[in-house]
């Protein structure tokens, strides 16, 4: 008997409900292996094939309904040396074209200014393709222009020459329509080149091949003319500029010479320093001024010394001052002093002669003092005269210095005028030299490029190309279909594999029952297929289920097992019949308790008639249990009890069943129909949840487990029914993929249902079933 520890089971289920969510676990790895991709392709084969066929058909329809576009191309070859005679630097006049120069040329080909020149020259305003508002519509086979797309070959009085003359009027008259024509031509013209080549190919797209070729030739030739015209205009502008500058420099040189002559004359400047009288006068005055300062210093020194000595006495002055009169007076004074001394010695101090001598001495000394003062006054006068002279010299030197300063400024200005004149003369010499070597009127301006290949009228359209667009559309549709399939797979919340079932049930998946719908014959059920093919995949799965059932509790004897499912059509009855048949063939006494009698139940599959007996009658004692046990008419080893449970003692019923049989398989109704399985689960030893792969929703399975946990159902594990057999080798899976897709298309064309859940409970017609059972009687013994 299979015995469960109810308290342990209750604690375990409570822990799972609180600690971990019973919901679906998210995909741990968002990547897809090769097997996952093959499985995804198998599941969504119809969606992928449908979207791919629709996309391919749509691309084909669009390809053949789109307007055909023809592409013509002409080729230009550029000279390696780009001659630029208007350049002033000699190195720039002969430059080699590099990649950047060629890229610039390609940009100029598609510039709006050049394309406007092409529109005007080729008269594209009259073409309805470029100007929908054109007055006259050209036919598809005619050209919209005269064959004069070579402007350089036009005569001076031709339409092109006249068109260039009144280009401004045409631009003003065109206005918005001309701008639209330029835009349309811009979308039709492109340029390309290969590697470092100097050849550039111009591509033009148009609805008509002849016009495409003409426009391509016109664009190429107009580019040659346009660039040559620009170079010619640049050369002429350069020449006019040089001549204008030469004239201006001539006038400037003459004006500067006159201005310098007038300035020199007005400033009294001399070009020879020896002729500069002012400088000589300045040197002379400096010498005289220096001598005068020396004389002044000496005169004032004598005067001051004489004045100081005069304050001390006449005798001291006489030592410094000298004159004839003073010398005479000094001599007379000496004579008088000698005479006095003789008279004093002879007559005494009071003698009249002595007194007369004293009077003469005093008078002489007075004369000496007066003479000394006169001499000092003369020294003072001489010093003052010297000072006045020095001041005069100083004024003259200052005046000359001021004049010299102004003259120096005039010299600086004169040198500036000389430098300006010299610079103007050098510029004039360069301009004259440039004008002598550059004369575009006498020399021919070399064209920038030349046409190397004229456009050929295309014979096949360049777009659309069915051989390219249809395969690309098919591939894009296939990729879109795969992305849609992956999106649907991510949004699909159905249980698809055993891992998902284990994550929800929180129990191991005991066995994965493969889908045998592809191997069934018309009117055949998986149960009968198992009996007829003992070595089929379904039979091996049922044998594995019996082994897993015996291994649930090692050392115990589990007997009562209940099959239940979240929804009808999950293959619950088929699994119950298969397990019962496999257990019976293995020597076990097995019985199927179908508590959900219905027209497509286990009894109907085994062709057992309903005898209108109930289990309640057994519990009441009115009917024996053997009376309720029905045996299949053609398979006497398989026993079935087809009756609902009543409101009686179910424990006594299951005890009686355990006593009589080794395995009691309870086929309970699905949980979406009624709740009998919830309340019967407490009387069984194990509950097996049947999950239909790719059919049972994760939310329904989660709700079913939550409902069973109300009565502490002993859920032993899950059974993944209708599982897809995964290939062990990706190479083998790839080889078998076409066969699987072909089988899917065959089933789709035959109108078969995708899932076999609806067939496990469908009764086989009586006559066909009887004929089939006689053929299987010999094969049953092999089980």
Any overview of this molecule?
There is one protein chain. The protein is of the alpha/beta class. The chain folds into 4 domains: 47-65 and 466-489; 70-244 and 445-453, 2-Layer Sandwich (Bacterial polysaccharide co-polymerase-like), CATH 3.30.1890; 274-437; 495-751, P-loop containing nucleotide triphosphate hydrolases (Rossmann fold), CATH 3.40.50. The chain has 27 helices and 14 strands. Strands 7-14-13-8-12-9-11-10 form an 8-stranded mixed sheet, with helices on both faces. α2 runs parallel beside α26, α6 (112-122) crosses α10 (209-267) and α13 (324-347) packs antiparallel against α14. It is elongated and about 215 Å long. The two termini are 25 Å apart. The model is unreliable at 1-8, 10-30, 135-161 and 751-783 (pLDDT under 50). Keywords: ATP-binding, Cell membrane, Coiled coil, Membrane, Nucleotide-binding, Transmembrane, Transmembrane helix. Residues 34-122 form the Polysaccharide chain length determinant N-terminal domain. One of its GO terms (cellular component) is plasma membrane.
